[in-house]
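Data availability (excerpt). The following record was deposited with the supplementary files.
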Amino acid sequence: MIPPKDVAVVSAPARTAADFLALTKPRIGALVGLSAFVGALLAAGPGGSLARIAEAALFVTLTAASASVLNQVLERDVDGRMLRTQDRPLPAGRISMRDAILFGALLATAGVGGLALRFNLLSALLSLATLFAYTAIYTPMKRASTLNTVIGAVPGAAPPLLGYVAIAGSAGGWAVSLFAVLFVWQFPHFMAIAWIHRADYARAGLRMLPALPGCERVAARAAFAYALALLPVSLLPGTRGEAGIVYTLGALALGLLYLAASGRFAWRPDARSARFLLLVSLLYLPLFYLLVLADPVVRAGILHG
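Predicted structure:
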C-alpha cells in the first residue's frame, strides 16, 4: 500500500498539470477546435488533407487557449470575488501569475507562429488580432460597459474564419457565413449564462446586462431578438447556393428551436428558462455543424469541387 506521503508526491504533478489545463478553458477550446476544423474542411475542397485540416484547427485552438490564460491573468482579482470562479488556479494561488503569463505567451507563440510558418501570414495576423481583441479590449471592457458582449462576440466568432483562411489563404463565402452564425448565436447563449450568474457578476463589478439593476427582463428580451436574427443569418448559405435543402430545412428547424427557448426565457425570465436556453444553445452549434457537413450540396463541394 502506498503511504499517504507518497500519494501526495505522485498527485502533485497531476494536480499542477490539471491546473494549467484549466487555465486554457478546455471546454471552450473544444468548441474552438471544432469550429476551426469545420471552417478548414470547407476551405480544403476536393483532395484536402485531413491531417493538414486538423493541424490548422490545432494552431487556432492554441491561440484561443492563450487568450483564455491571459484573460484569467487580467481577471484574477475578479475571479477571486465570484463564487463560481474563486477556485480557479490563479485566485486560489495554485499557479503564480508569472507562470501563467509565460504559459499564455508560449501558447500564443505556438498558435500564431504555427499558422505563419505552416500556413499563411494572413491567418496568423488575423489570429493575433483575435487574441489582442479578446485580451486587450474585451476583457477590460467587461468592467466598463455592457458593450463588452458585442466586442467579445467578434473574437468569439473568429475560429471557423481562421480555420478557413489558414487553408484557403482568403475568406470565402462559407468563412463569412460561419462567422455570422457564430457571432449571432453567442448572444442568447451568453445572456442565459450571465442571467444565471448575475449575482456573481454584480459582486465582481462586471457590466453584464443581466447583472445591472432592473435589466433582467431586458437581457431576456435581447436574447430573443438575437435568436430571431439568427434565423435569416443561418439561412443565407441556402439562399446563396452554398448549401441545399437538407441544410436549409435543418437550419430552419434548429433556429426555431433556439427561438422558442429564447422566447420562453423572454416571457418568463427565471433560472429554469435560462438553463433551458443554455442547454439548447449548447446543442445548437454541434448540430448546426453536422447539418453543414451532412448536406449533399456541401459534401459535393468538399469531395468533388
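Summary of structural features: Confidence is low (pLDDT under 50) at residues 1-10.
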